[in-house]
Design brief:
The protein is of the alpha+beta class. Helices cover 62% and strands 13% of the residues. It is built from 18 helices and twelve strands.
């Protein structure tokens, strides 16, 4: 009865979403009715509870290995470790979409419970927009038909195409297992964090739609939206960073970013969310960039929806994409058109009623943020075109591929300009500033960048100029990022300022890692016999043995590599070729040694009849800075979020105390 309970809870959540939408429409229009507004908030909480119950019951079915449920039988196995049973819940199409709508419902419940400062009509309209989004995805899960062929012919079964709780009769003795590439702790961490980011942007979208509906676009609306944008941006940053490292060590290709369309699908919302975060901050604190903020809120969620469509439509062939049913993609495309098209139409109709807000000079912090947003938009446009154009060309019968050379040549110059603006922005004053004063503040960062540029040219051994410039700009950004702390009492610096400093330093650290890896990495492909030695960079690698190994649900051939660096003590690395029986798959498991100045990355290839084994080795100087910087960016965002929330709570308490007095 667990599956039936989960399905019933999902239907109830959908009914509550419909009720929430109807109540919100009645409460937000005209003068609004207080009872309907209060009921909308309560229904939003109940809806979140129901969908969470449904998802929890699906997790329980996977943990119990209930093979009478089609989703469990298709994506799990009784011998799987518990971690992969739980993570397998969202390692498939139906389960991942249920996770999506669960986060969506919980986000709406969070807004209903926590938001106290926004005008009641605006809040009610926001909850109505959130319910409308959720209702579309509930319909996707509950009403999509399934095409079947059986003894009676071919026909559609209405409402069964996306049902995560569909039963099998008879139940198979065991399941087909989870894709071995997904049998990694990264599956337990990467998709949920990305979804929290993707769906978190739906809250910003709903805030924008709500504000447009009731014509309430101002600082109060931005202050209410900002924590949700910041939280979504943090989760996106963590998800992209973790996903990059997961692909790096799991695929055995030695790369940390491949410009894969599904990777780009996560990058595009992050770029839009970064621009939105800057704009909403200006609106919340300085009452500027009102139209920018509304448009970016719509754009950020649009990118999330496009990413969902790309991953789950079946139009992409990627190690990251696991949907193969184009009919489902058509439904998502319809939802995307409905929500984004409707929001853009609303924006076009109401943007004329949005007041201009406070003005500012070009040489000001607001001006720098506008340039920042323009450059982020250019990068977003390049990624968007580079990702979707091959699909459009394919639909027209033309086969083409756009890979790293295009993205690198198009994006690197814009990124360097963006780094320069990011360095200068926090050093500018609000409203207006003096260009000469800015140049004086930038003197030390520019000197640091110049010094690193010269050192890299002299010691880099002919490193490409783009990578050398990347190192130089990273050094300048790192110094400029801490410049706002100069001359201030450290204990009195607000947390949100610390967050900005740490996040910008994280950007510099990541760029330094990217440039170092690209400029200085060394690769060696060798065929060696047991007992022979090869080298890469400062390392000597000796193949000691190749022997069988057994894991909880796999068998493997494991190489025993003895590695020495200079006069240091030898250490072992154990790369593997694994074989999974459920489903039958062979995977490459890299072995990595992390040093203070980079990573030695080793992969075991195939053997040949002469007794030689292929070894692929990389020495990747300072590559770990890429992910260290990513988590510094997320940490900075978290510190800023805590600081903003603390300030809002303190302000609210002071306001209550004044009202009571």
């Amino acid at each position: 009865m667990i599956a039936e309970g989960g399905l019933a809870a999902l239907w109830l959540a959908a009914m509550f979403a419909l009720t929430q939408l109807v109540l919100a429409w009645g409460g937000a229009r005209g003068g609004g009715e207080a009872e309907m507004m209060l009921a909308t908030r309560k229904i939003a909480v109940v809806q979140g509870a129901m969908v969470l119950l449904s998802f929890g019951l699906l997790v329980l079915l996977f943990v119990q290995s209930d093979m009478s449920v089609a989703l469990v039988a298709t994506n799990s196995h009784s011998m799987k470790p518990l971690l992969y049973k739980v993570a397998g819940t969202w390692g498939n199409h139906e389960g991942s979409m249920l996770l999506w709508v669960t986060v969506l419902g919980l986000s709406g419940a969070g807004v209903a419970l926590l938001e106290k400062r926004l005008d009641p009509r605006t809040l009610t309209a926001t909850l109505g927009a959130q319910a409308a989004i959720a209702l579309g995805f509930y319909a996707f899960l509950l009403l999509t038909p399934r095409f079947v062929q059986d003894a009676t012919g071919t026909h559609w079964i209405f409402g069964d195409g996306m049902n995560p709780f569909r039963r099998l009769d008879p139940a198979p003795p065991d399941g087909q297992g989870l894709n071995p590439l997904l049998q990694d702790p990264g599956l337990a961490f990467h998709p949920p964090t990305l979804y929290l980011g993707y769906v978190g942007l739906s809250v910003a979208f709903s805030f924008a739609v709500g504000a447009l509906l009731v014509r309430d676009v101002g600082p109060a609306f931005a202050r209410a939206m900002r924590p949700w944008v910041l939280a979504a941006w943090i989760f996106l940053t963590i998800g992209i960073t973790a996903g990059s490292y997961w692909a790096y060590y799991e695929l055995g290709w030695g790369g940390w970013w491949f410009w894969d369309p599904v990777e780009n699908a996560s990058l595009m919302p992050w770029l839009a969310a970064t621009a939105l975060l800057h704009s909403v901050t200006v609106l919340a604190t300085r009452d500027g960039l009102r139209a920018w903020t509304l448009m970016l809120a719509v754009l950020a969620f649009s990118m999330s929806m496009i990413g969902t469509f790309l991953v789950r439509s079946g139009i992409l062939v990627s190690v990251h994409a696991f949907a193969v049913d184009p009919a489902r993609g058509s439904v998502i495309l319809g939802l995307l058109t409905l929500y984004i098209g409707g929001a853009l139409a609303l924006f076009g109709l109401r943007v004329g009623t949005v007041a201009q807000g406070a003005t500012f000079r070009l040489v000001s912090r607001e001006g720098a943020l506008v340039v920042n947003n323009l450059l982020l938009s250019v990068i977003l446009g390049v990624v968007f075109i580079g990702t979707l154009y091959p699909l459009v060309a394919q639909a027209a019968g033309v086969q083409l591929s756009i890979g790293p050379p295009f993205f690198n040549k198009a994006i690197v110059p814009v990124t360097l300009a963006l780094v320069a603006v990011t360095a200068a922005g926090p050093l500018l004053k609000w409203r207006r500033d003096n260009l000469n004063e800015l140049l004086a503040k930038l003197l030390i960062p520019v000197a640091a960048a110049g010094l690193v540029f010269v050192v890299a040219i002299v010691l880099g051994g002919g490193a490409p100029i783009a990578e050398v410039l990347g190192l130089a700009f990273a050094a300048g950004l790192a110094v400029a990022s801490v410049r706002p702390l100069f001359g201030r009492r450290i204990r009195l610096v607000p947390l949100h300022t610390w967050g900005m400093v740490i996040a910008h330093v994280g950007v510099a650290v990541s760029i330094a890692g990217m440039a170092s890896d690209s400029a200085f990495k060394l690769e060696r492909l060798a065929a060696v016999r047991v007992g022979e030695t090869t080298s890469v960079g400062p390392f000597q690698v000796r193949l000691e043995d190749v022997h069988p190994a057994i894991g909880p649900n796999w068998s493997a051939l494991e190489a025993r590599l003895s590695v020495t660096r200079g006069e240091g003590a030898p250490f072992l690395l154990l790369p593997q070729q694994r074989y999974f029986s459920n489903p039958p798959t062979t995977t490459t498991e890299s072995a990595i040694s992390t040093e203070w100045d980079g990573q030695l990355y080793t992969v075991l290839g195939q053997g040949d009849p002469d007794g030689r084994w292929q070894l692929r080795l990389w020495w990747k100087p300072f590559v770990t800075l890429i992910w260290a910087g990513g988590f510094l960016i997320a940490l900075g965002g978290l510190i800023a979020l805590v600081g903003r929330v603390r300030r809002e709570v303190r302000t609210g308490r002071l306001a209550e105390a004044e009202d009571e007095a």
